[in-house]
Amino acid sequence: MEFAIETVGLTYNFGTQTVVKDLSLQVPKGSIYGFLGPNGAGKTTTIKILLNLLKSPTDQVFIFGKEINANRIASLKRMGALVEQPAIYSHLTGKENLVNRCMLLSINKGKADEMLALVGLTEAASKKAGKYSLGMKQRLGIALALLADPELLLLDEPTNGLDPNGIIEIRNLMIELTTKHHKTILVSSHLLAEIERTATHVGIINKGQLLFQGPIGELQNLGKPVVRIETNNNNQAVALLEPFKLDTIRKEEQAIFVSYNDREQIAHMNSLLVNAGISVYSIGKEKQDLEHLFLDITNPN
C-alpha cells in the first residue's frame, strides 16, 4: 500500500514536555484519514510537524515516500493545508483573496474562478470575505489551500464552530475532493460523529500516543458489543440488569444500552425484564457510534 503520509516513531518535545510520543502514522493515498483525539492530545502539533512548521528529527516524517527534511520544497509543493483559522484578508472579496494568492504563487489568475466553483463560492465571489459566514470562510480557506493543486490536504478542525449546514458543506466537499479529484485528506477533529460519516481510515491519539489506526470498519471490532433495549420503564430495567456485573449500562432518554458477552446473555436479559413485568418494546444489537468507541479505547477500565 502506498502512503501519502508516514511517520516512524515520531517524538516531539516542547522543552521538557513530550507532546508527541513514538507516533507512527500511516495515511493511505486516496483516503480521508480522520485524526481524532481530545484537546491537547497532540493533533495540531503533529500537523505542524507534517507541514515542516515544526522540525522533526531526521528520517521520521515521509510524504509520498520522501523524507521531509531532505526534500522540504518538493514535499511542501504536494501539500495544501488549513490549520486553525483560514488566512484570509477580510477587506478583500473572496475572489481577490484567491487572485492575490495566485500572484504570490505565480499561478494563472484564472485558477481563482475554478477554485471558487469547486468550493461552491461562485455566487459570493464579489462579496467581502469579512462578510462571509464561518462556513464560507472555511470553504475559502480550503480553496486557498487547493490553488496549487496539491495531492495531499491537511485540515485542522475544519468544521469547528460551524452550524449544521456548514458542517454538511465541508463534509460533502471533502468527499468530492477524494472521489472526483483524487486528493488525500488528513482531517483532525473532535466531532467524532462527523468523522464517522466521512473518513475511510481513522487514527486515535491521546496524550501524544497513537491508540488505534486502521480502516474505520475495524474500529467497530474494538468496542464492546452493545444491545439496545427500549422498555416502558428504563429506570427499573437498569436496576434489574445491574447485578449482571456488565461492563457498560448506559441509560438515554428512550432506551438503555447494555454490553454483553454472547447471544444467550441477551436472551437472559430479555426474560428477566419480561418476567419482572416490564414491557420490552425492542431489543437488538447496536452498532456503537464513534464517540463511545473512543471512550472505550481511551478509558479501557
What descriptive keywords fit this protein?
301 residues; Rossmann fold; Alpha-Beta Plaits; six-stranded mixed β-sheet; four-stranded antiparallel β-sheet; 11 helices; globular
Structure description:
It is a single chain. The two termini are 34 Å apart. By secondary structure, the protein is of the alpha/beta class. The mean pLDDT is 89. Helix content is 36%, strand content 26%. Helix 3 (94-105) crosses helix 4 (111-118) and helix 4 (111-118) packs across helix 5. The strands form 4 sheets. Strands 8-9-10-5-11-12 form a 6-stranded mixed sheet, with helices on both faces. A 4-stranded antiparallel sheet has the order 4-1-6-7, with no helix packed on it. The chain folds into 2 domains: 3-214, Rossmann fold; 223-298, Alpha-Beta Plaits. It contains 11 helices and 16 strands.
Largest sheet, strands/sense/barrel:
6 strands, mixed
CATH classification, class level of the largest domain = Alpha Beta
Strand order of the largest sheet: 8-9-10-5-11-12
Helix content: 25-40%
Q: Number of domains in the coordinates?
A: 2
Q: Can you say what the CATH homologous superfamily of the largest domain is? A: P-loop containing nucleotide triphosphate hydrolases
CATH architecture of the largest domain, please?
3-Layer(aba) Sandwich
Low-confidence stretches: none
Number of E strands: 16
Instruction: Kindly report the average pLDDT value.
Output: 89
Q: What is Rg? A: 23 Å
N-to-C series of helices and strands: EEEEEHEEHEHHHEHEHEEHEHEEHEH
Shape, please? globular
Q: Between the first and last Cα atoms, what is the distance in angstroms?
A: 34 Å
Number of alpha- plus pi-helical segments: 11
**Assembly classification:** single chain
CATH topology-level name of the largest domain:
Rossmann fold
Approximate strand percentage: 25-35%
Name the structural class.
alpha/beta
